[in-house]
What does this fold into?
Amino acid sequence: MDILHSFFLRPSFVPLDFTGKSFAESAVNISEKTGNCPTQKSGLMLSEIESILDVPATLGRHNKRWHLAFATIYCSRALHSLLNKKKSSKPPVSTHSFVVLSVEPHLAFPNIDHTSLTAVVKEKNLDQLRKLGGVEGVADALKTDTKSGIHGAVEDVAERQETFGSNTYPRPPTKSFFYFVLEAFKDLTILILLACATLSLGFGIKEHGPKEGWYDGGSIFVAVFLVISVSAVSNFRQNRQFEKLSKVSNNIEVEVVRGGHRQKISIFDIVVGDVACLKIGDQVPADGLFLAGHSLQVDESSMTGESDHVEINSSQNPFLFSGTKVADGYAQMLVTSVGMNTTWGEMMSTISRDNNEQTPLQARLNKLTSSIGKVGLAVAFLVLLVLVVRYFTGNTEDENGNQEFNGSKTKADDIVNAMVRIIAAAVTIVVVAIPEGLPLAVTLTLAYSMKRMMADQAMVRKLSACETMGSATTICTDKTGTLTLNQMKVTKYWLGKEPVEDSSSIATNVLKLIQQGVALNTTGSIYRATSKSEFEFSGSPTEKALLSWAVLELDMDMERLKQNYTILHVEAFNSEKKRSGILMRKKADNKIHVHWKGAAEMILAMCSSYYDASGSMKELDDGERMTFEQIIQGMAASSLRCIAFAHKQIPEEEQEIREGRQKLKEDSLTLIGLVGIKDPCRPGVRKAVEDCQYAGVNVKMITGDNVFTARAIATECGILRPDQDINSEAVVEGEVFRKYTSEERMEKVDKICVMARSSPFDKLLMVQCLKQKGHVVAVTGDGTNDAPALKEADIGLSMGIQGTEVAKESSDIIILDDNFASVATVLRWGRCVYDNIQKFIQFQLTVNVAALVINFVAAVSAGEVPLTAVQLLWVNLIMDTLGALALATEQPTKELMEKPPVGRKEPLISNVMWRNLLAQALYQIAILLTLQFKGQSIFGVSEKVKDTLIFNTFVLCQVFNEFNARKLEKKNVFKGLHKNKLFLGIIGITIILQVVMVEFLKKFADTERLDWGQWGACIGIAAASWPIGWVVKCIPVSDKPFLSYLKW
It folds into this structure.
């Protein structure tokens, strides 16, 4: 066989199969049949083997031998190839003695090595990029048209994802439920309780036997298990909710060009070869190369830590990196790497979002819990001391009435058992005193409100914002898109001093200039699939309005204009300059022109002449300038956004200088015309503004529009009263506000309702002034330059639709529908969170005070604790978990918006709460102490039944008091009760469990069964807390905080 093998491999010999084809032809034939599918390829290869082994009977003996030899070699090679395919992807090395034919599937992108391309971009290797043919060469290799992008068909996208990977990265493993169980076990109180449970269980079984001795210890274990379960489940669910929110917030919409059509897709759907469109504020979605654009500057601080912006251009630095932010300009980029092949992907896959942040309210509650815990510890220590002294002085008796301690006659076991019982009672007092339910209540309230706010178009990025919003005293809001619909339409056009009603009357020379100004000085685009289909406009709302007007009314052909002109330099629009300009050369005559567009009064200030209605150029003297200013004011007073267009042809002698400097001419321009764009107010925004004002929250409008437009919109929205004059202190321009001295700003900031022509710096300045005056400030923003103000504010609210990624990352809450009414909803939810926490604190402290006082007085006077460990733990469970769940899920009510905002330094426990909780606690203490000392004679029952009556009355008092806690100030505590099914369900469950504890778990709960009369008495005594609550709410309270010297 070896001889045959070497014989076949000689270069001079090419074996034939039985069909007369060469071995090479046969192998190629198989490759052609199988294409790129490995499975299909294997199947066909095996079928080919079968056909080779099938020796035709017509062959002679000599040929049969040759055929068999060939079949043996071919089969061994084919099978060997199949078995080793997975082990190595490297092609076998050729030698001079024979030729190896590759049967690898055809690669979709044979002209590009993706690993090398990824390295070129990561390392910013310009030389290597040039060897690849530059950006155009890379685009060709990736089968991308630099103008129209990839085809975008499903198969094309799928093939690219399979070849180059998807734009996703693996997240770190999520925390399991077991992790949160372990976290709950780290609580010191739980550990103390477990230690006590172990001792109690051991000594209980030793004293009473395994049948009955496990009750006390076992009940503590059950209570610990329940508390840990509720805590772990709550934290686990909250963690899952954060992860869901994280996925939503990471799912950014990116604009790409596919099949010549600009469209928005998810960042996760970006593929290698895509042409992505970038503008100010965007996050770069993947690694790639600069294709085309102007004035592009990128903030790479997230990658390099350097705060300086990096200029990106085609000649020196065409490299763009995923996760960086566009600081200025606009561009199109070619995507070369996605997902884990990018530096950002590698970095993000190792980072898990920290959602263990502690909110200010949680921090205050932990402090409160600690303070109450210290009081509980002191009471428990006193009880322990008193019980130990009473035991050793012979003042305690056992169940048979015999003295428990008789000096040396008492067994050591009995002393140990008594000590364990006393310690268990003291520790149980500590447990019932420490309100572990407070942090749980906050967690539940915040988690519930976050979920509901998401449904109300508000996505919470930082938990603390939920509660801080409830304290907001001032909201600084944008105009465009927040108070208005952001659905812009050109409704007026002025040429010279005359309004143009019919576009056909516009002079030809002016019409051409307008078309140039709109088509070339824009970041928007137009798409039309066929000549009969409708136009699709993309870009900002203002750009879309101008493009739509120019195409549909002025018959503008954007593509033809782009072909006739070369753009030399662009100054992109931003919120500080409020204008954009281009320097361009006409290809036909090589003449250079400048076009500007932007805020009307700013463009007007740059002009020295204008075109009149007939198309003639006229000088712009002071009188004419005044006329134009009045036209602009008139349009603004009609709530129109006024945009001006200006033009200048550069003289030949200046052309070379201008082209070399690439700096746009900003003076002696000619005004082409004025355009009025209507952006109607959102329906319902006036009602939302009035709701905020009624709730004691000032609404201030900060806008880049001029004073007249700002005043008109503010009046329409209800921010300004119609009688407030424009010259009053309520309306101010950003520049004027900036020039005030710091004392003047502090004096006037409260009176300002509208700030027009403001820059992002002015907005930041106003936020700082308001915070210095003690206001809790909420700010809305959508632009990149709004980021400092959003970060500075107590609550930053970014816009989900128009907001840039930079603005969203700087904010605490994202308003998903960009609607001011949603801001008012967030305010309502913020107040609801704070209100629900206060309700629960009032409920919890009532139980704490009552339980502590009753046990302390009874222990000191009678030497015994009326409520056993099991009973106290049951009460603790009701108020900690079920109570928190019931009161934390109350929904916002209209009453919340009738109260003034809660100040930043307001005490957590208000005077109203102290009034309510002390009244209920005193009533419970009085009733239960009466039962403790006179219960047996009043009801004529045994001591065991009396203790059960105390326990039952105490629990039922909490059930009835839970209704009182629903309303802190309103007397009608049943209003809206039918809407909260969860509250009613929890009350029902509590009552059923209490009946089970009293009637069926006698030994476990240390209770006796009660008759109907005794149940009626318990319910009657507990129900009295309703009328008491009603009467107490009639008592007025002072504004000065009760216990003001205590700072929680």
In short: Residues 458-484+682-818 form a domain with the Rossmann fold fold (CATH 3.40.50.1000). The chain has 38 helices and 26 strands.
